[in-house]
């Protein structure tokens, strides 16, 4: 099993969810986040005063999948989150040692 951790732009969340559903991914967790990378924030003007926003809004997605689904899930995320502009996000893939469904006690891939 693998944990896919993806950071995407907030307005791309629905497109990513739909693409993952079409790829056969049934569950994910989305969390609002703030961060920056190469884009280094942005400058805003409010009531004539200029100020810098260092942390931009992002959405953090966490998806646990079987090893066979990793490529399809990553492709779905990349294609649906792509704007070809700086700040599109990142995808990280990590190993998952064990999963347990609390309600039934199922373990491993059956718990997904």
Written description of the protein model:
This protein has 112 residues and is an alpha+beta fold. It has one domain: Alpha-Beta Plaits, CATH 3.30.70. The chain is built from two helices and six strands. The chain has helices at 13-22, 70-81, and strands spanning 2-8, 29-35, 42-46, 49-53, 56-65, 89-95. It has a four-stranded antiparallel beta sheet with strand order 2-5-1-6, covered by helices on one side. Strand 3 (42-46) and strand 4 form a beta hairpin. Helix 1 packs antiparallel against helix 2. It starts with a strand and ends in a 17-residue tail after the last strand.
Keywords for this entry:
two-stranded antiparallel sheet; alpha+beta; 20% helix; single chain; 112 residues; four-stranded antiparallel beta sheet; 6 strands; Alpha-Beta Plaits
Give start-end ranges of low-pLDDT stretches.
Answer: none
Give helix % range: 10-25%
The count of strands amounts to 6
Strand content: 35-45%
Structural class: alpha+beta
Taking all Cα atoms into account, the compactness measure Rg is 17 Å
Q: Which sheet architecture does the biggest sheet show?
A: 4 strands, antiparallel
Give the H and E element order: EHEEEEHE
Question: What's the domain count?
Answer: 1
At the first level of CATH, the class is Alpha Beta
**Helix count, DSSP H or I runs of 4 or more residues:** 2
Within the largest sheet, what's the order of strands?
Answer: 2-5-1-6
The whole-number mean of residue pLDDT values reads: 91
The CATH architecture would be 2-Layer Sandwich
What is the distance, rounded to the nearest whole angstrom, between the alpha carbons of the first and last residues? 9 Å
The CATH topology comes to Alpha-Beta Plaits
General shape = elongated
